[in-house]
Amino acid sequence: MEALKARQSDEETPDCHTNEGTVRVFSKTITVKTHERTDLINLSDDIREFAASTGVKDGYVQVSSLHTTAGLIVNEWQDALLVDVKNLTESIVPRDTYYRHNDPEFSDCDRHNADSHLRIVVLGHNVSVPIEKGELVLGRWQSVILTEFDGPNHRKVFMQVFGI
User: Is the backbone peptide bond immediately before 94 cis, with ω within 30 degrees of 0?
Assistant: First the structure.
């Protein structure tokens, strides 16, 4: 206990803050139009606007793709890197490989989109972003990006803010 008191007295400005109140939950589903089979869409402004509209000062926003061939990542929104992301997913899960999901002997799917499903297995469907003092906590270069691998399409993205 003495060590804690000594440490607290040495610190003039703590690097954390507290807040308390009634937890509130807000939900919204948006539809995002994609334009290519493999497409990346920056959702950061949509998420930021929704979070701000709730009035939540401290909490989280959970963002989920409601699809099995479109997911979410957090990364830099920069043209060259976006091309690299597309190329990386193609190299990890190539489109022109045999997949049972595409084979009529084993599957009733006629879209031949097994690669799209498998790419999302690698990348994921959900991201959580903290909210502090009413602002999304993202690094300077971070954006929330919808990853489309079976477009063009209309994709539903569910957002839920919870906090105080």
Answer: no
pLDDT in tens, 70-86: 999 999 999 999 999 99
CATH number at residue 57: 2.60.120.460
Number of domains forming the structure of the chain = 1
The pTM of the full predicted model, rounded to 2 decimals, is 0.89
Gap between the Cα atoms of 117 and 114, Å rounded? 5
* Cross-strand pairs, 70: 148
Whether residue 56 is contained in a domain is answered as yes
Residue 154 lies in a domain: yes
Q: Which residues pair with 59 in a beta bridge?
A: 131, 163
Own/partner long-range contacts of 139-142 (Cβ < 8 Å, ≥24 apart): 141/76, 141/77, 141/78, 142/74, 142/75, 142/76
DSSP-assigned letter for residue 21: S
Region 131-140 average pLDDT: 97
How many Cα neighbours within 13 Å face the side chain of 85? 24
Structural domain containing residue 56: 40-163
Exposure of 104 by Cβ count < 10 A (0-12 exposed, 13-18 middle, 19+ buried)? exposed
* Residue 142 in domain: yes
Quote the tokens at residue 59.
């909490």
Does residue 20 belong to any structural domain of this protein?
A: no
